[in-house]
């Protein structure tokens, strides 16, 4: 459950006390810290809160009583289990709901109350000490390791070191487990047992290099053999002496400083960003004030943790006790990259593994295990007999340029053109977009994206095509405006699935005739030269989430492969059935591939085997840049020669970087498991598919009922949903459309700034009058249902 | 010390036994495993080796004696310290050399002997059990945590879990510390104490999800109160019963399987790579056999761990007991990226931190702490008042394209050109290279790299220039062939430093006149339009490690900034002194910046403030892709407008990905510390610089003596060294030169395949007749001295 606000308040220092192991003095330190803040001198009054989320063992011996006993302040336990074992065992058979969600909600509410209480007295500050149980990764009641369980709150951590033999190693390992999960460790505490192990000295040095201070506290009195009363006396003396000693002022000062530093950093970030950052794809004149830039403290699962601004608070009473952060559903899947959730500890750990095993290693003339494994996995997953070789690069744009270079070279060789002298273009579809480097831009028709790019030269021809959509509850395939003659009139379908049912639809002589006629005009009449067909299968993404009639995309590949593009006359027959024919066919699956639409490839929807397949974005599960150009033997062979200059002289420094390749392997395996094993997808599929093998069908993570419902809304023109993608075309009452329309902006702003009745805020992106939402592959049905409800609610509000 | 071979032999299974903590049963398991392999049934005979690298406490109670006692086999301790404390304390004042180097060498030799021994009996296999002390990160004798200390060997790990309360958490944390350091964990072992903690059940499930099997072994007899004899009897019985029990066959089987799997994976990788990988910048026809592709098992520090091939073994007697891996100095710094050493645990952990805190988060309209901190750090480090804004992208090529788009737009606006209609080019230097995407390629003159790129259109003009070098012991600045008239005759300098001393050299009226005359011809006579000056400061990298006379580069900037490029007549004066003048000046510091030459910027050598500065490669310390285009306010303002299309519509999905930005922050801070704090650089600087403030001077990590020495070699034409870069131009006896020359290939092959007398192999790259070496920022003088000796040795061998 990650839809809880990050725990940060202005007037409350909330901390989480973790131990390197059990028995290292977490409770003693918590008590000491509580006593310190109770008695801390200075003008600041401190409102004390001690919270034990989970306690096991008899309640008479529980830590909350202990803290109460020595500080005189109230202390609170959320879950108390009598059995002195790990919480995940103790919770079995308990009447309490031990889910992470329940625990986080109750802890969040308790902290919120603490923040509220600290405001009751003017000028007072609160401190909340949240003491964990056992070691950093000891399981919570649900079985989830604590540091994972509590991660959505991302409380600053204080780590109590282990003073015993072996404690240096276990303390550092515990710290590393926190760091891997994105925690900030404010301080390490060592109780100095005066042993000769010198753990504190070592740890001070070690953590000092990481800018984490280590504080040494006097050893805890040895109570062996003490009676209850003697014990109480000795501990009372210990706490009285030490709570006001210099070392506790240092600890307290550090914790206060870190709190102020975090607030000040968050508070200054939007202004600093406005000063220094040139944002991608952004007209900076439109950013009126610094606060228009969202500040992300962190992210977890499907949610960003966003800093509140006056705008985001406009329907929440402005209270100091409201957490400074709010969770927002990442509705663009962070530019279509997100697959396995933000802050995924498995990916984080595996990224570190590859970094620890290799760092980066050069890939020219060399190889390594993650790169070769990923190449083989991709070839297998693509399930396309044409695709045999994998070329690595860094992003969709570079991978597209690689594919263009491959295609053009092969075509120029076969058709005996010289690229440098002849203008060889590409064939594509109107509104295609393949990336922002000049070569990738040149493969797209003139549009707003390249209008003012001075070196842009649109090199090719881009076809019109029919599109499909759900309009007012009916699935339709529509021709572009005034092109009924070319594409036929609007066709109606019972289900989305039937649009993809080629057995049912057959081939389209009309589409093929149109394509052929157009090619004749270009090639035979105008003598134009083409070197590749480049298609985004199923959906044109940046072009406006346009869902193309799959039968048209299938048709254009069929026609191109039988067409004679030679300008010297005779057709050139490919030597082998898997060789490219007509033109190399390149699918840009950067957006649509690798489970974005619920399948490994988008090509499978078209039942087409391209000669080149380009992948990025979800390839690394949404963690870091890596891209792949998968290609055929016949394209590879076009670069075979005696000269180095015959080769594909392309390669970026971090080509096939091991971290990216290894993370891609982990991600693709995880996503494959979701497709085959996980029950969430079964639920999504079940909503769209009846009685047919799920994998052969089109389905969406957005519910059919919701999609149909909003398609009938008066402000909605049409809707599409496929896999994790939802696109809603809004009616622009101003009459403008396309990229320059701003119909969707109002809805986008409401979704973010006005919390819904289902307690959801949504961060979304728009493309002109299209607003779209995208789930990650691990989004839970329950969360998406709440997002759907929020969307419907805010859509309705538009009409008010 | 990382120049030890990775520990992998065909006939020896070498394992490292790590404990989740002290007192978890490492020695009992080691003994049990030893006993198991001693008695294991089957046709395989096992030669047993038990090695305790470091033992503390009385030798009479040491683990080696214990193992010997219960297995009857010999056992070996490398370092024995009597005091029962952590080795780093025990080693103080000891007569032994407790350095990591010493320990690794002795352990390596012992393992090599074990491999050798196992070959004495035909058909026998060896097993080597290397038992660590304490927890995974407990310090070794030098103070280095054990898992770091032993990392160069990268032995497969067996982790003994902690059975106690808190042991679930500490065991997982210990495993994570191993994983962060790139270890493979073959198995987790849990002793089942029948307690109600159920640690084994939890760990089995947890590690099962990571494909690591957990084996549960029967509880160790409780020996409390037993006499010595009784203890011996009970433990003997325990080992006898369990060593041949089914569970130990499972453990043994798993360890054997993993060994075979690793061998088979390494063995098949070159062939699998040849089958599936399309390598960057590679003419595949030149890869004659699969084994020509180097297989990297891993990498650490400055060294790759490379799989031996027949070629690499050609001067080593082919023995089965020679480790299958050899360390090779990464002499190209993995395509000029490597800065802080391969497998750097600090970078690995911090990569995981950013992944755990954010994953990737979208950057359009949003911001996060690592991105803004890095932007500010870059602006500060660049120390150029013109540079105010940071644009993020993924690699040098995309960052260059961004810079080109910025420059052209600004120029076209000021000079009232329309890029789409007018051919606006760039000015640059002959042999420049800025990356492999089409736009970046178009900014370079026609050359071998773009000769067969069909969309390549060289758009611009590229100047000739004088170069500097050390030729036969003398520093010279030379004009290009037959251009004495333009640039003057060869100039001689006492030191490299004096070439950069503009106080001494003054300005060059001759250079400036030449540049101005050339511009007049282009602009006034031919009416050509230019939109940017793009320069690689100091060194043209891919163009062949060409060291340009810094005075010429300074001159061209000076002339361009005062020249009138307007084609409509009147000069356009910039409004502000920090605005670009003449043309935007863009420095491509992808290769030369960020400490590659010993300073934050290469621009500082020229004493020039460019309007755009492009950075990548070392930006992340050599870990993963990220790039930056730093730019001025006046260029930013050129994209300010009412229309979205006025904006810079560029942005990759993973723009400013938090892992990259955070790692860049950590790396830049580390490299800055090396420059200011670390003593190694002081030694390098001291070798080149006398009596002057070090930061204002040119120096190299390659020793002056070595550089001078080889410059006089009969096979060497000239040498350059600056910062971490060494470039040696070889005399090509065939008379060919440049990219198509193969003079350097012979030396490159010898450096890798023939081990030097200093026991070094070097992986290097060549550019035509240039062979170059590059250190990482953390390379130690001692290692570089050994590399220099190897280079000299192999160079001499060429002449034989």
Description:
2 copies of one chain form a homodimer. By secondary structure, chain A is α/β, with parallel strands linked by helices. Helix content of chain A is 37%, strand content 19%. In chain A, β24 and β25 form a beta hairpin. In chain A, α1 packs parallel to α2 and α12 packs parallel to α22. At the A-B interface, α6, α9, β8, α10 and α11 of A face α6, α9, β8, α10 and α11 of B. β11 of chain A pairs parallel with β8 of chain B, so a sheet runs across the interface. Chains A, B: This is PLP-dependent transferase. Chains A, B: It comes from Setomelanomma holmii. Chains A, B: GO terms for molecular function: adenosylmethionine-8-amino-7-oxononanoate transaminase activity; dethiobiotin synthase activity; pyridoxal phosphate binding. Chains A, B: It holds the Pfam family Aminotran_3. Chains A, B: InterPro entries: Aminotrans_3, Aminotrans_3_PPA_site, P-loop_NTPase, PyrdxlP-dep_Trfase, PyrdxlP-dep_Trfase_major.
Précis, in short:
Chain A contains 26 helices and 28 strands. With 800 residues, chain A is an alpha/beta fold.
In what range is the share of β-strand residues of chain A?
15-25%
Could you report the average pLDDT of chain A, rounded to the nearest whole number? 93
Q: How does the overall form of chain A come out from the CA principal axes?
A: elongated
Query: What is the assembly state of the chains in this entry?
Result: homodimer
Strand order of the largest sheet of chain A: 3-2-4-1-5-6-7
Strand tally of chain A, please?
Answer: 28
Number of helices of chain A: 26
* Spatial extent as radius of gyration of chain A: 31 Å
Class from secondary-structure proportions of chain A: alpha/beta
User: Low-confidence segments of chain A, ≥5 residues, pLDDT <50?
Assistant: none
Q: Fraction of residues of chain A in helices?
A: 25-40%
Largest sheet of chain A: 7 strands, parallel
Biggest interface: chains and residue counts? Answer: A-B, 179 and 179 residues
Roughly how many Å apart are the termini of chain A? 33 Å
GO molecular function (chains A, B): adenosylmethionine-8-amino-7-oxononanoate transaminase activity; dethiobiotin synthase activity; pyridoxal phosphate binding
GO cellular component, one term (chains A, B): mitochondrion
Subcellular location (chains A, B): Mitochondrion
InterPro entries (chains A, B): Aminotrans_3, Aminotrans_3_PPA_site, P-loop_NTPase, PyrdxlP-dep_Trfase, PyrdxlP-dep_Trfase_major
């Amino acid at each position: 459950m990650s839809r809880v606000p990050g725990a940060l308040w202005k007037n409350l220092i909330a901390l989480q006390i973790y131990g390197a192991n059990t028995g290292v003095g977490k409770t003693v330190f918590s008590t000491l810290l509580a006593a310190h803040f109770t008695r801390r001198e200075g003008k600041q009054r401190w409102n004390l809160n001690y919270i034990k989320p989970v306690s096991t063992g008899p309640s008479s011996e529980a830590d909350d009583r202990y803290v109460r006993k020595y500080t005189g302040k109230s202390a609170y336990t959320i879950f108390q289990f009598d059995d002195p074992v790990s919480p995940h065992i103790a919770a079995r058979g308990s009447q309490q709901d031990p889910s992470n969600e329940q625990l986080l909600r109750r802890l969040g509410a308790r902290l919120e109350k603490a923040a509220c209480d600290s405001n009751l007295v003017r000028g007072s500050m609160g401190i909340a000490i949240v003491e964990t149980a056992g070691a950093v990764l000891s399981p919570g009641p649900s079985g989830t390791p604590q540091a994972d369980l509590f991660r959505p709150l991302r409380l600053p951590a204080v780590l109590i070191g282990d003073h015993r033999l072996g404690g240096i190693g276990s303390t550092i390992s515990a710290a590393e487990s926190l760091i891997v999960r994105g925690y900030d460790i404010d301080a390490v505490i060592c109780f100095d047992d005066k042993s000769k192990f010198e753990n504190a000295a070592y740890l001070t040095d070690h953590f000092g290099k990481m800018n984490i201070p280590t504080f040494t506290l006097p050893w805890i009195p040895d109570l062996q053999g003490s009676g209850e009363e003697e014990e109480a006396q000795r501990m009372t003396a210990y706490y009285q002496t030490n709570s006001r000693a210099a070392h506790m002022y240092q600890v307290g000062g550090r914790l206060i400083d870190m709190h102020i530093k975090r607030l000040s950093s968050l508070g200054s970030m939007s202004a600093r960003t406005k000063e220094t950052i040139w944002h991608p794809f952004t007209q900076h004149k439109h950013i009126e004030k610094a606060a228009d830039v969202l500040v992300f403290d962190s992210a977890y699962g499907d949610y960003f943790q966003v800093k509140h601004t006056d705008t985001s608070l406009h329907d929440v009473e402005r209270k100091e006790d409201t957490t400074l952060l709010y969770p927002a559903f990442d509705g663009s899947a962070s530019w279509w990259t997100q697959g396995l959730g933000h802050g995924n500890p498995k990916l984080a750990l595996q990224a570190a593994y590859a970094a620890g095993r290799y760092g980066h290693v050069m890939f020219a003339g060399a190889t390594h295990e993650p790169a070769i494994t990923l190449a083989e996995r991709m070839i297998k997953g693509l399930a396309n007999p044409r695709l045999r070789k994998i070329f690595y690069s860094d992003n969709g744009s570079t991978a597209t340029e690689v594919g263009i270079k491959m295609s053009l070279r092969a075509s120029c060789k076969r058709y005996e053109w010289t690229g440098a002298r002849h203008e060889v273009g590409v064939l594509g579809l109107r509104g295609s977009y393949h990336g922002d480097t000049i070569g990738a831009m040149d493969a797209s028709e003139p549009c707003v994206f390249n209008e003012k790019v001075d070196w842009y030269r649109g090199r090719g021809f881009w076809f019109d095509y029919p599109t499909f959509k759900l309009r007012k509850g009916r699935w339709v395939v529509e021709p572009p405006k005034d092109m009924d003659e070319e594409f036929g009139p609007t066709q109606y379908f019972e289900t989305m699935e039937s649009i993809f049912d080629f057995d049912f639809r057959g081939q389209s002589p009309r589409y093929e005739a149109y394509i052929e006629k157009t090619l004749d005009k270009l090639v035979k009449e105008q003598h134009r030269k083409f070197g590749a067909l480049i298609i985004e299968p199923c959906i044109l993404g940046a072009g406006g989430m346009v869902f193309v009639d799959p039968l048209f995309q299938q048709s254009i590949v069929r026609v191109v492969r039988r067409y004679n593009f030679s300008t010297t006359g005779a057709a050139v027959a490919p030597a082998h059935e898997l060789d490219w024919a007509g033109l190399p066919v390149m699918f840009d699956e950067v957006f649509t591939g690798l489970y974005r639409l619920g399948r490994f490839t988008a090509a499978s929807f078209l039942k087409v085997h391209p000669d080149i397949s380009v992948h990025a974005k979800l390839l690394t599960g949404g963690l870091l840049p890596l891209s792949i150009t998968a290609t055929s033997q016949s394209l590879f062979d076009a670069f075979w020669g005696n000269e180095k200059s015959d080769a594909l002289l392309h390669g970026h420094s971090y080509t096939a970087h091991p971290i990216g390749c290894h993370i891609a392997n982990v991600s693709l395996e995880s996503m494959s498991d979701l497709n085959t094993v996980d029950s969430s997808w079964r639920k999504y599929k079940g909503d769209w598919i009846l009685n047919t093998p799920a994998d052969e069908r089109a389905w969406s993570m957005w519910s059919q009922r919701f999609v149909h419902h909003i398609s009938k809304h008066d402000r909605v023109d049409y809707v599409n949903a496929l896999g994790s993608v939802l696109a809603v075309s809004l009616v622009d009452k101003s009459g403008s459309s396309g990229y320059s329309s701003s119909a969707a902006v109002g809805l986008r702003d409401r979704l973010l700034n006005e919390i819904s009745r289902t307690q959801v805020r949504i961060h979304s992106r728009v493309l002109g009058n299209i607003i779209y939402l995208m789930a990650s592959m691990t989004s839970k049905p329950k969360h998406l249902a709440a997002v759907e409800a929020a969307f419907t609610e805010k859509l309705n509000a538009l009409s008010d």
